[in-house]
Amino acid sequence: MESVLFSSGPRQDALREKAEVIDLETWPRRTHYAFFASMAQPFYALTFPVDVTRLRELCKARALPFYPAMVFAAVKAMERVDAFLYRDREGVIVRHRRLVPSFTDLKPGSTLFHIVTLEAGEDLGDFCRRARAQSESQTEFLTAGPWEPDQEVYFTCLPWFPLTALTNERDGNPSDTIPRVSWGRWEEADGRTVLHLSLELNHRLLDGVHVGQFYTALNEFLTAL
Fold first, then answer.
1. Closest CA to 197 of 208, 206, 185
2. Which of 88, 89, 161, 218 is the Cys-Cys partner for 77 at CB 3.0 to 4.6 Å?
3. Nearest-angstrom CA–CA distance, 185 and 191
4. How far apart are CA 114 and CA 106, in angstroms?
5. How far apart are CA 55 and CA 66, in angstroms?
6. Burial 72-87 (b: 16+ CB within 10 A, else e)
């Protein structure tokens, strides 16, 4: 599946572009960044409900897998919030143009997960089909692509139970500003389908207001399907 992983074209060319380096002297967030950069543990996590009724209906109608569809929705919502495009490279702040989803997945009958990473593109159905094809054919635990590693957003799903909170493993680097996104089993009530989405973020770059913007963008994306 080489074409799935490394196909060429305008989208992939954009992903290969180097991130924009931010001038800290003129960066409006420099004071907030410096405040949280002094902390050994600048991470925080939160969880909120998301109505995925429309997304679930669309996936059923188009025979698309729900999991990558939700991954796509979350990435597209993040790309609509400028603050989610920034990363901290040990004191050098950069801004990406696009984000790349990287998500855990299981093959049927297996209890050992693998990590699927591929560009999101601009079409939900196309992403779902590419994600499913790559996951099914992937033999490696983890693959790399033409993008920069910190363009990625990490996803995981625990579909066996509803999720109310979650924290992820880390290597202890306080400059790690890659968002972690998680959810569990959805719940149905009054004709609606709701799942709880958990975010783990670094306060050096992302505040509560940015989470609010993401929440709004995600709901707008899901409503417009």
1. 185
2. 218
3. 16
4. 6
5. 8
6. bbbbbbbbbbebbbbb
Amino acid symbol at 213: Q
Coil, strand or helix: which one is 148?
Answer: coil
pLDDT at 17: 79
Distance in angstroms (rounded) separating the CA atoms of residues 187 and 179: 24
Residue 57 makes CB contacts below 8 A (sequence gap 6+) with: none
113, amino acid identity: F
Per the DSSP assignment, residues forming a β-bridge with 197 are 48, 183
CA dist list (Å): 216 to 22, 38, 171 = 26, 30, 31
18-77 per-position pLDDT tens digit:
999 999 999 999 999 999 999 999 999 999 999 999 999 999 999 999 999 999 999 999
pLDDT tens-digit series, residues 115-168: 999 999 999 999 999 999 999 999 999 999 999 999 999 999 999 999 999 999
Specify which residues 158 forms β-bridges with: 184
- Integer CA distances (angstroms), 150 to 84, 146, 168, 223, in order: 12, 12, 17, 29
Report the alpha-carbon distance of residue 155 to residue 48 in Å, rounded.
Answer: 16
Contact between residue 203 and residue 38 where contact means Cβ atoms under 8 Å apart: no
Relative orientation angle of helices 66-79 and 124-137, to the nearest 10 degrees: 120
Confirm if 81 and 218 have CB atoms less than 8 A apart: no
- Residue pair 50/135 in contact (Cβ under 8 Å)? The answer is no
pLDDT of residue 5: 32
Q: Which amino acid is at 205?
A: L
pLDDT tens per residue across span 86-98: 999 999 999 999 9
